[in-house]
Amino acid sequence: MGDLTGLVLKRLGFGLITLLVVSVLIFFAVELLPGDVAEAVLGQGATEETVAAMRDQLGLDRPAPVRYFEWLFGAIQGDFGVSLISGERVSEAITGRFINTLFLAAYAAVLAVPLAIFLGILVALLRNTLFDRVANVLTLTSISSPEFFLGYILILYLAVKAKAFPAIASLTGDMSLLELLHRTFLPALTLVLVVTAHMMRMTRAAIINLLASPYIEMARLKGTPPWKVIVHHALPNAWAPIINVVALNLAYLITGVVLVEVVFVYPGIGQLLVDAVSKRDFPIVQACCLIFAATFILLNLAADVGAILTNPRLRHPK
């Protein structure tokens, strides 16, 4: 138990250091962007006095390291400052959008994870058959296709031609759950097509790798049915890589939704980030990037911990 706690704390420490480094990169990457933030906010017709007053109001006349530490300490407390465009608190502007992104990611995960594991087990049972070859071609095609391309294909066939789902995932506060699921089905399906392919291939590879083990051969010699060999003998020992790839894909579902949200005009944090970049609303850009980074690091930590818990060799390293 002590070894396990030490490993988890070690991973957590690395995660915090990584997040700190990322926060530095995010803040100073925005600082290095060309142009003056005050001029961008006020427009080209602003006078020098007005620009100077805006710079003073935004604190841009102070050294960058001082502003970084103020921003970092505020972010730790959940205060990311004020939007340069709307004047709204950044934390308030982001909260609702982040909840929408989490909902979309959870919707896609509920569909993708069981489907990927089931298909991975199925193609492992039917490896080197026509079904296995077709599944490999389809998954490679899905992995190789950009999200926006898949999204537009789904819009063309399921929204424009079949008219089964709306092309734009607009949301209102008085929607029922069924209507919400219906309106967000196409962006969720786009994410499902991308992550299911990756998780399915990893599940298939993990199980096939175990099928050559001596204890699997012994189970076969005893006359155990193929599906029982995989479910009861191979799958429990394949959980470590499967959990790892599932956690990494969940991280992608949350941090990689920017293109999908733009394609379907979905009111999530990815769409908010794109709008903020186009309007040079840097406090929102910095907050969105930091939230994406923190989410990705947290889910990577969960993947590491899951792998440690399911693999005794990692719990007791030599």
Task: Summarize this entry quickly.
It is built from 15 helices and no strands. The chain is mainly α and 318 residues long.
CATH superfamily of the largest domain: MetI-like
Content-based structural category: mainly alpha
Order of helices and strands: HHHHHHHHHHHHHHH
Rg, nearest Å? 24 Å
CATH class of the largest domain: Mainly Alpha
Biggest β-sheet description = none
- Strand content range: under 5%
Task: Give a verbal description of the structure.
This protein is an all-alpha fold and 318 residues long. The protein folds into 2 domains: 2-76, no CATH class; 90-315, Orthogonal Bundle (MetI-like fold). It has 15 helices and no strands. Helix 5 (90-125) runs antiparallel to helix 11 (226-255), helix 6 (130-144) packs across helix 9 (185-210) and helix 10 crosses helix 11 (226-255). It is globular, with a radius of gyration of 24 Å. The two termini are 16 Å apart.
